[in-house]
Known about the structure:
Layout: H1 7-12, E1 21-24, H2 25-28, H3 46-56, E2 60-64, H4 65-68, H5 75-92, E3 95-100, H6 119-138, E4 143-147, E5 152-153, H7 161-182, E6 187-191, E7 200-201, H8 206-213, E8 222-224, H9 228-233, H10 238-247, E9 255-256, H11 275-288, E10 294-296, H12 306-332, H13 334-342, H14 358-366, H15 371-374, H16 381-392
Parallel strand pairs: 1-2, 1-10, 2-3, 3-4, 4-6, 6-8, 9-10
Antiparallel strand pairs: 5-7
Amino acid sequence: MVLTTGGAAHEAYRPTSADKFTFGLWTVGNAGRDTFGSETRPRLDPNDSVRKLAELGAYGISMHDDDLVPYDASPAERDRIVGRLKETLADTGMVVAMATTNLFGHPVFKDGAFTSNDRAVRRYAIAKTMRAIDIGAELGAKIYVFWGGREGVEAMASKRPGDALDRFRETMDFLCEYVIDRKYGMRFAMEPKPNEPRGDTFLPTVGHALAFIGTLAHPEMVGLNPETAHETMSGLSFYHAVAQTLWQGKLFHIDLNGQKIGRYDQDLRFGSEGIKDAFFLVKLLEESGYEGPRHFDAHSYRSENMEGVWDFAAGCMRTYLILKEKAKRFAADPEITAALAAASVPELALPSVGRYSAKSAAELAANPGDPNELARRGYGNERLDQLVMELLMGVR
């Protein structure tokens, strides 16, 4: 039995498809292999993963093309595999919420995919992506993610960054036109990451990716798929990255996991690290009106057998729901509400000056305020943060 905590509390945090929790086939299917050791558990049939995730209350799955169909499969084999998964999805009520392409595993991509110095490799990568988009569309995916795992360098002299970004842009524009031509109704989401497996990656952060999207021929079709671990690896706040992505209307999909600052990409169970960060992230998603999947791009510890894998999956969903409830308590707590007011949190939503006019500028210049008087106030952030910690520690 997975997560056997009993009673009403357990039922309150039992996920349903309405929560829109999704998992990559590569997440629960991770066999425990790492740089220093081979697999510690058997590989899963994708159909078995779908059935078990449905049993746990998940909404759907995501997948790389190679998670389902081997890259060298014949057309007949491809159709057989995809057809079998479609039957499993129909039987379980699960969906494919997102699809993507593996452009990092095969040795052909050792110098990159869309930004390889070899034009023939770039063309192969685009063709592989077109085939994978076709599979995603056939399975009903409306979001297609681009993670440039091999798009980068170790030797700085090996690529001119401007040329690489030109090729990246050319590819995204071409694939947008492909989706439009096929009438797939699909949107693209770019997934930034600062490094690993390359020493330095092109479009390493949310900010870089947002700026890049503005240069595309179809920027309205392209948004972001930010990931907890990827922003945290570089010491940045994932909460603030997601907040700006929402502010710019570009949160098309999101990858949730756990990560320690400054480490390799750990892909830990959601909420297992940085619980305060995870709380404010959940609060942000739930209060923002974000309607997309809550996607877990993580995997179980290498120490676990298959029972531990399902404990991991159930734990991701349960933690999210616990933090969702905490966010509701935050909003309803009168002491927290008073502390927010004392810190002038609601005041930040008020315009500072409004639209410019010569009259308003003259009035402001004539009465700018006394900085010494303004500096005397305190903002009560210590008390506010303490109340948050007490909420999270279960004493409020």
